[in-house]
Amino acid sequence: MDPNLKMSSNMNINITQKAMKFLQKAKKNKLYIKRIVVTQCCIPLSTPPAVRKGSPRKPEDFHEFIFDGITVYYDRDLIPKPKLTIDTEGLGLSERLMVSDWVIKY
């Protein structure tokens, strides 16, 4: 098994090297993945979840996983995925965390 992969409750969470460096630079050892609801003209749109540094305001609304010293909170309203990869996008001041393998099917 890949040492960067952690199996928890049937969910594999992979945090890339770039995302780990981003968290280390920000001095954070926690992140959370939350559902985003976008409503356009009465029609909710499916979007990938947001990934934020730190702890959520209501941790009881999240599943908690540990990966290589990083606590990952996963929104209970999101469908559990068999595999989830957390990476970064952007450069410099616009760099942010993201779920890189989230697939939306219409």
UniProtKB/TrEMBL annotation:
It comes from the Bacteria. InterPro entries: CC/Se_fam (IPR049744). NCBIfam families: Moor_selen_rel. This is Fe-S cluster assembly iron-binding protein IscA. It comes from Desulfosporosinus lacus DSM 15449. The lineage of its organism: Bacteria, Bacillati, Bacillota, Clostridia, Eubacteriales.
